Amino acid sequence: MKPRMNNPAMILPEASQALQALGKALFGSAAVVGLPNKTMFLAYLRASQINGDSVCVDLHSRNAQAAGETADRLLAVSAWRETSHFNDAERAALALSEAVTRINDRADSVPDEIYDEAARHYEEQALATLIAGIATANLYNRLNVTTKQIVATSVAN
Fold it and tell me: What is the pLDDT of residues 33-90, one digit of tens each?
């Protein structure tokens, strides 16, 4: 398997710098408002699973593990509704991630019940950080999927 081209963000240095700055700003904001990195990575992972972006699934899984996430929880993200691995705030973040990612799947793209549940668990700045992060994950997913980026793997002998 071979990518169609390099990731557009890597071809356009100004775009790459802007996206890197956005990522730093989001994680900086998360730290200030008390939004756990693990929650951000779970939301990003779910969006990337839905979008079929293997590069970001790999990246967010690894980043989540580095932030202290367990393999059991990472394996359960795609079936988060059917497991007890996640608390209510994480469930709200995962539901929001799905709604934002599947924005065209229903007449009311992000229903009030999903938004309100997220707002119940996250203060306004934390919720803004989460929403902007999910949108950013979706942007990267679209770049990677469109250009057929692949995960760099090493084969063990």
Answer: 999 999 999 999 999 999 999 999 999 999 999 999 999 999 999 999 999 999 999 9
Alpha helices in the chain (DSSP H): 8-11, 13-33, 37-51, 54-66, 71-76, 88-101, 112-121, 124-146
pTM assigned to the model: 0.94
Residue matched to tokens 């992060």: 133
Domains in the chain with CATH codes: 36-146 (1.20.1290.10)
pLDDT at 139: 98
- Residue 114: both structure tokens together: 């999903």
CA–CA dist 68, 38 (Å, integer): 7
Residue with tokens 């973040």: 93
- Cα–Cα distance, 55 to 39 (Å, whole number): 19
Contact 152, 3 (CB under 8 A): no
